[in-house]
């Protein structure tokens, strides 16, 4: 992994009007039902994203920018996906079971990452009900996108330490025709919307081969299985985290070398099933390249860096700034 920017009571009343009591009672009984229906739609969405064959173009708004992308996806056991930028510098991203390959025409670079970062759609856990303590799930009505009828699914965080989602799901296939990543207050941070979409019977190999690349491109390999040393769950560490958001559990812990310097960095991944944060700790002295100090932001991604006891700590994730700041300031060396 590369070094990060060194680069979420009603007042008591003796009498309640009968109509209000009936309304409140209906709301109490309808919430679990609405959540269950929302789970059904999200389960269908996850299956559609993985299993269906499709191609189309979509616009992606993030960090004050608007990009147009072409996507072709082959579903099933041999799932494979190719993204091609239709605006700005020519770029391609190919995802398969081995990882992700990014081809950048402006820098003549091919970057290979075996860690399988997320694609353009939110990755949802299989057991959505486990998230009920940290998010509210509901249906938000109907809409039309691409002249297709869609069902809106709303995912709202129960605190300010994680983001929420809105999904406009195609009624026929449950593919996300539009989606938005939003703050706890509902402000959009990132949005995606298809401008053209076609569900296919099959996708040929030729449609998934990258068009960019060649002998003048330089290949960079990110950390892979051979360069990562997984830390056993029972193994100790020199570091502890005195604060984590409710529901965030350890998802991964390993040591690996930095791609350029080869310096060893200890890496933790924490998440609640939707949101994730990564923590990197490495040795740091006056000869080290300057590291991130304080908060940094790029769209929905926030990062926090600090030095501590001869080490540099970086916390980064698609979570609010307060989350990475509190987590970074809560890192302590074990006694």
Automatic annotation (TrEMBL):
Residues 38-211 form the MucB/RseB N-terminal domain. It is found in: Periplasm. The keyword rRNA-binding does not apply. Keywords: Periplasm, Signal. InterPro entries: MucB/RseB_C (IPR033436), MucB/RseB_C_sf (IPR038484), MucB/RseB_N (IPR033434), MucB_RseB (IPR005588). GO terms for molecular function: antisigma factor binding. Residues 236-332 form the MucB/RseB C-terminal domain. The keyword Signal applies. It comes from the Bacteria. Coiled coil: none annotated. GO terms for cellular component: outer membrane-bounded periplasmic space. Residues 1-35 form the signal peptide. One of its GO terms (biological process) is regulation of polysaccharide biosynthetic process. CDD domains: RseB. Belongs to the RseB family. This is MucB/RseB. It comes from Thiohalobacter thiocyanaticus. The lineage of its organism: Bacteria, Pseudomonadati, Pseudomonadota, Gammaproteobacteria, Thiohalobacterales.
């Amino acid at each position: 992994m590369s070094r990060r920017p060194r680069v979420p009571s009603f007042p008591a009343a003796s009498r309640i009007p009968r109509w209000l009591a009936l309304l409140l009672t209906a709301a109490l009984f309808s919430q679990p039902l609405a959540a269950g229906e929302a789970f059904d739609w999200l389960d269908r969405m996850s299956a559609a994203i993985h299993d269906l064959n499709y191609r189309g173009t979509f616009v992606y708004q993030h960090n004050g920018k608007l990009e147009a992308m072409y996507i072709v996806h082959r579903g099933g056991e041999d799932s494979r996906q190719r993204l091609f930028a239709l605006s700005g510098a020519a770029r391609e991203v190919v995802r398969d079971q081995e990882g992700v390959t990014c081809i950048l025409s402006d820098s003549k670079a091919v970057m290979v990452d075996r860690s399988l970062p997320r694609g353009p759609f939110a990755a949802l856990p299989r057991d959505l009900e486990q998230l009920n303590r940290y998010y509210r799930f509901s249906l938000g009505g109907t809409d039309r996108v691409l002249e297709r009828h869609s069902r809106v699914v709303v995912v709202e965080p129960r605190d300010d330490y994680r983001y929420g989602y809105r999904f406009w799901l195609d009624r026929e296939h449950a593919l996300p025709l539009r989606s938005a990543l939003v703050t706890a207050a509902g402000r959009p941070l990132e949005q995606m919307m298809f401008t053209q979409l076609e569900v296919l019977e099959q996708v040929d190999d030729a449609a998934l081969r990258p068009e960019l690349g060649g002998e003048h491109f330089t290949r960079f390999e990110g950390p892979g299985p051979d360069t990562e040393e997984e830390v056993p769950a029972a193994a100790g560490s020199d570091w502890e985290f005195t604060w984590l958001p409710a529901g965030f559990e350890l998802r991964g812990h390993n040591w690996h070398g930095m791609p350029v310097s080869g310096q060893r960095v200890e890496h933790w991944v924490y998440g609640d099933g939707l949101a994730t944060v990564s923590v990197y700790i490495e040795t740091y002295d006056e000869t080290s390249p300057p590291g991130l100090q304080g908060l940094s932001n790029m769209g929905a991604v926030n990062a926090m860096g600090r030095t501590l006891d001869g080490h540099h700590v970086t916390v980064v994730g698609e979570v609010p700034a307060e989350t990475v700041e509190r987590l970074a300031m809560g890192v302590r060396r074990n006694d």
